[in-house]
Each structure stands twice: as structure tokens, then as C-alpha cells.
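#dry-run=false #mode=assembly
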Amino acid sequence: MVMTALNDLWHGFGVAFEPHNLMWCFIGVLFGNFVGVLPGLGPMAAISVLLPLTFSMKPVAAILMLSGIYYGAQYGGAICSILLNLPVHPPHAVTCLDGYPMTLKGRGGAALGITMIASFIGASFGITEMIFFAPVLVGFAFKFGPSDICALMLLGLLAGSTLARSSPLKGIAMTVLGLLFGIAGTDINTAEQRFTFGILHMADGIEIVALALGIFGIAEFLKCVNYIKPIAPKDMHVSMRDMLPSREELKTAFPAMWRGTFVGSLCALIPGTGPTIASFVAYALEKKITRTPERFGHGAVEGVASPEASTHSSVQGDFIPTMSLGIPGDAVMALILGALIIQGITPGPQLVREHPDLFWGLIASFWIGNILLIVLNVPLIGIWVKLLTIPYRYLYPSAIFFICIGVYSTTNDLFGVGETLLIGLFGYVLLMLGFHPAPMLLGFVLGPRFEENFRRAMLISDGDLGVFIQRPISASFLGIAVMLLVGQLYVWAQKRRAKAG
Amino acid sequence: MSLNKDKIAGLLLILLGLGAYLEGRTHSLGTLTQMGSGYFPVALGLVLLLIGCLLFVTASPDPADEPATQPHATDQTEPPHLSLDHCPPPDWRGIGCIVGSVISFIGVGHWFGLIPATWVCVFMAAMGDRTSTYREAALLSLLMCALAVGLFHMVLHVQFPLIQFPFGKV
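#status=ok
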């Protein structure tokens, strides 16, 4: 088992080292690092903007690049948190707590250095986890029937929507709305037009690009315009020498990195718990087990090392359910899954067997990408720090143009651009009302497959809903889902009581 | 009874759920064994309706209560990015310019082609920021026009006439 995995990985390196793939991997991590640094642009917007450009690319190159943006952005995201105390990238928000005090004490460079080490350790562990765990999961997933897949999707959707930010109720509402968006267009079973309102363009359904760019692009810009202040370029000099942590700092940081890595890799395996939750859990754990909790919030090294390691290990591990089961854990993974579908690749357990070059090439590219990121970040840290000062007033107009032309190029039609604008305005209204539209994308991507599998399960069981609890696999998934809901309810009730008392 | 954010959110969901339910009813429902094309939308619509009602009922009656659901800023283990969760009041100039810029991309693009559409779109969007100057915005738009021609037209071969006039291409 181990030998086969290593053998396949060797093959994967062959794929990833093809000059063409290597180039796209490099472009992906470079661009990801770039958008990660910039406040006000995130990996979601970046992946959605570049998604249409990948349509003409080969599947392997396209997925390597889009994934590169995602994990590359995690390297850049920490810079903003540590040096400026700007928690604009959710997984790195917790790094602000101790990263910024370190900057105030003049150890900002060292904090960045520790972040880089922690990132690499975390990512390496996440990748290793994927190498050995994903094939096992695939073997298991082949036993799934339609009802099991349905139950798993339900679990993924529930976890993705309730564990995210804001209230669980609103999260579930967003997922259901996403499912509805997903089934708009021509029904595959009956060829009936649903939710098309007689518009011919809608027969193909809503474009994933239009939805993603609407809610992560336009809606975000509508919310942030004139609220992101330009950053003064003072105090923004970090050189490579500054990044060297002291021996004492390393000594406290190393065990914390391993703890963080462990937390992150666990979080990656639970559907719906992405890097953001991993980093908060890791920080809370550090604070709990330390003998000197009073140092936290005043520049404790562990408070930087552990969350960063857990973020990176969970980012890499995030790919496990997406690539081996075809069930994305969060909105970014839903986008990657969307890219796979656009490339004509059916996501699911058969992906590893049918497209080994894609699966193992992707894993190999993770290693290459992470090494490239270290090379990019350590000597060039000064340049990335300078990039922080690019004002928002240049960024968002350029991004809007990219959105317009990107959506246009998917269908060669201006209708899609209008669709994006409408979705963007709708997304902004949702943001105003305290919703987080990200789970919508999860529902959108899974919508048609959920309906199809549900239909199939009902056809096989002759309309007996009991099949979901009779089959052990689906019953256990549903059991976990129920536990999740009960847990959420409990937390909600506690909060309510605390508020009342 | 005052309408706070959660109440409006609940109402919106009820409306959307009702819409999905009514649209779904125009298709055949079928049975659970042989699900028709309307079955799934109707079910989802009802779920949305239910969530909307729940949200409406559980919404805290006093808008002043709302910040209390957010953790105290002094508690350091709580996510500091919750400030991100708070949507600031709308900035009408920015919103107007962004919406206008996308609409003008569609309109100008339809009649005049890619280059004018890019210029107008970027210029208008840039003017949404209160610190932008006309000069800066114009230069940024020119840069984007160059990118439109260089990257999207020449490299990626996006099918979009560069320049045209409503009464025939030049």
C-alpha cells in the first residue's frame, strides 16, 4: 500500500515537472502569493477571476494553477496580519493577535520567519496526509451507493454551512439557496426548464463563474469600496536578515508548530471545517495548554506558529475529500470542483483511477509549489511587503474589468456580465443582512448531483425514505449530521442563556 | 415591532422560498419513487420557507441587542475577524460607480467594442473611490485597455470586436 502510493507519487512528480505544468504551478503560486498579500483581494476572488482563463488549458495545468493560487495566498495572507494588524484573510485573522504585538516589539521579521517555517511544516504534513489517506478513502468510497452519497453530501453541506461564520440558520439558508441556484436550467431527467423565466440564456443554468464572481467579486467590492484605507509605506522594511528567529523563539515555536499541524490535519478530515476554524482551534489549544497564558496577545511566539501551521496543514488536507470523494469541504474547494467539471472530469472516487496524472501530479505540485513559495517569500520578502502599499483604488477597478471580460469569455455573450452584476447586487443585499454567501457555492456545485443521487436512491428503494437509515454507511453519515445539528443547537441555546443572564 | 436585520433576512428567505415553491409547482411533482422535475424545487422552497420563518421568529426583537450576539472584543480567543462580518453602511458613490461601470461595459461593449468598453468601465469604477483623481483613473483605464488588447485579444483570443460603430465596423 505504502509502496504503491510512493510509486504513484513518483509518477506524479514526472507530471508536475513537465515544463508546461511547472510553469502554470509557478504562475499559480506567484499570483496566489500576490493576492494573498493585498488587503481586499482574496483567493476566492482570484480563483474565480482566473477560472474562465483556464477553460482553454489542459486539465492538469488548470487545476495545478488554481490550487496554487489557494495555497499560495495562505503564505501572503500572514504578512498583512503580522505587519499591519489587518485581519482581512480569515484564516490568518488569529495571527494578528500575537503577530502584531511582535511587530510592535520589533520582532515582526522574526514572526514572518516563524510563519514561513510553520507554513512549510504544516503544508508538508498535510500533503503527506493526502498521499496516504486519500487512496484509502477512495477504496472505501467505492462501496457507496446513491443513498450513501446523498447522506455524505448532506453531511458536507450541513457542516459547510453551520460551522462557518454567522448563525447556523443563515448558513443553511445560503446552502439551500445555492442548491436552488444549482438546479436552475434544464432538468437532466425530464428536459423541463426550471427557474429560467422564459429566458433562453438561462436554459444552460447559471454559470459558476457568474455566481462566484458575483458573490466574491462584485458584492465584496460593493461592500469594501471607500472602506479600505490606503496604507502608509512607513515602517515597512523587512529584510531577509530580520526574518531569522532567535534560538529561544525557535525552541518555543517548534512544539507549537507540531501541535498546530496536528490540529490542522484533523480539521481537514472533518468536512466543512476549513483552515479558518483550524487556526482558531489551534490558537485556543495553545492558550489552554501553556503555563503562561498571560503572554498571549502580547507577542507569544506560539500564538503565531501554531495557527499558521494548522492553517497550512488544513489547506492541503482540504483537497482530500474534494479529490477522493468529489465532495468539497468549503467554497474554495467547490470552485476547484467546478473547474474539474468544466474540464470534463467527473469528480468522485473514480477520479484517482481514471486520471492518475491529475491526482498525483497535483500532489507532487503541492511539494514543488510550497518549496517555490519559500524561495519566493524568504529572499523577496521586502518586495511583498512593498506590495501592501498598493492602494485599493487601483485594485478593484482593474478587478472589475477582469470580471467583465472573464465572464464574457466563458460564453462570448454579454448576458453573463449582466447576470454577474445581478448576482453581485443580490450578494451585497445578503451581506448587508448578515448572511455569508460562501456556502451558496457549495450548494450550487452539489445541487444537481444531490438531486440526481436522491432520485436514484428513491428509485432503487421504491420510494422508501427508510433506506437512509437502513444502510449502515448512510446511517452513520446521517448520525454525524444529526450530532452536528444537536451540538449547534446546544451552543446556540447556551449563548442565548448567557445573553439573557 | 421594529424591523431589524434578522427579521428582514427572514422575510427575504420566506419570499424566496415561496417563489421557489410556486415555480416548482408549475412542474410535475411525481411521486417519491418517480420524482418529477418539480419535486426537488418544491421541497427546497419549503425548507427555505421554514428557515425564513424560524429566523423571523427567533430574531432578537430589539436591534440594540444585535452586537451582543458578537463576542466581546476584549476576549482574545474570539475571532478578531468578526469585524469583517459587520457590513458597513452602503457607500452610495462607490456602489453607483461600480454598478454603472459594469452596466457601461455591457452597453458600450455591445455597441462600440472592447477598447471603449474597457476604458469606460475602468474609469467609472475608479471614480467610485473618493481619493481617486481623474488623471489616475484615466491612466489606469488606459493600462487596462492595453491589457485587454495584449492579453485578452492577442493571447487568449477572446471573441470581442476591438472597436466598432453601431452602424457597421470600421
